[in-house]
Amino acid sequence: MHGGPASCVRPGPELLDVAPAYDNGNCEIRMGLGLQGIPRDRYILSCKTKMRDREGARTELERSLERLKTDHFDLYQLHHIVKPGDVETACGPGGAMETILKAKEEGKIRAIGFSAHTTKGALAALRAFPFDTVMFPINYVEYFTRGFGKEVLDLAAEKGAAVLSIKTLNAGAWPKDAERVRKWWYRSLEDHDSIGLALRWTLSLPGVVSCFPPSWLDLQERSIDAALALRPATAADTAQLRAMAEGCGSIFQREEALVARGLAPDFFYADPGCPGMWT
Predict the structure, then answer these.
(1) Which end of the chain is more exposed for a tag (fewer CB within 10 A), N or C?
(2) Burial class, 95, CB count within 10 angstroms (exposed 0-12 / middle 13-18 / buried 19+)
(3) pLDDT for 112-127, tens place per residue?
């Protein structure tokens, strides 16, 4: 994995995801350089926009295409939908969806999706537009302790949207006095067996077609190795993950609670004290 994006591209199409918000655009620039020389049909390229207006979305789209040195995105997403108002703005007159739909006519976008961290935001988006994909945290801790993700999975299936799982390897919030072995806003599964277990369970859920590991190269490598040995999850796998989830703290409950009260979180990621995080 130390070779950058090129080392991620193995036999068969690979899904690579990036956004302007990641490291203030530097991730797009680095990925664009790293993908040079790799045939374009060897990977599925996904990007996003946090802009909710037509003009802002167009600016981000064109800049992203330039940075990534490509003439099209296989998937383009509204980034980080939080509350229903985000959807109303993006899908309303003069909203970002006008740019996205126009860009699809121009051949610059193939499929259209969105990413979200809150149930209300995701459900509002799924009801507002026939998105091809929904990027959402589908994670054993959140699912078994709070049922987080179930409603989104159900509505995505009803609407025919594929689910791209993020935070798949989340092992819960860091305990207050715990030593953080990584500068990351949540604990992650670390060993090969646990990673394989989480991936098996998540990818066995109806509608889930892909999982994104954290942005640490060693965890990405372990995730790829586990995926290459993937098999369907068993009842024993599910029981083991349910037991592992007991006592783990949620990383999304605070954001969910604020949105449920009609408030807008004043942070982009779940831990404002740990900047520079992805997705």
Answers:
(1) N
(2) buried
(3) 999 999 999 999 999 9
Range of the domain at 67: 1-127
Whether 213 is in a domain gets the answer: yes
What pTM, to 2 d.p., does this model score?
0.91
Q: What are phi and psi of 125, to 5 degrees?
A: -65, -45
Reading the block at residue 1, the tokens are 């994995």
b/e map 112-145, b = 16+ CB within 10 Å: bbbbbbbbbbbbbbbebbebbbbbbbbbbbbbbb
Regions of the chain where pLDDT drops below 70 = 1-13, 266-279
**pLDDT tens digit string along 139-156?**
999 999 999 999 999 999
Q: Is 183 among the domain residues?
A: yes
Do the Cβ atoms of 108 and 143 come closer than 8 Å?
A: no
Cα–Cα distance between 226 and 204 in angstroms, integer?
A: 14
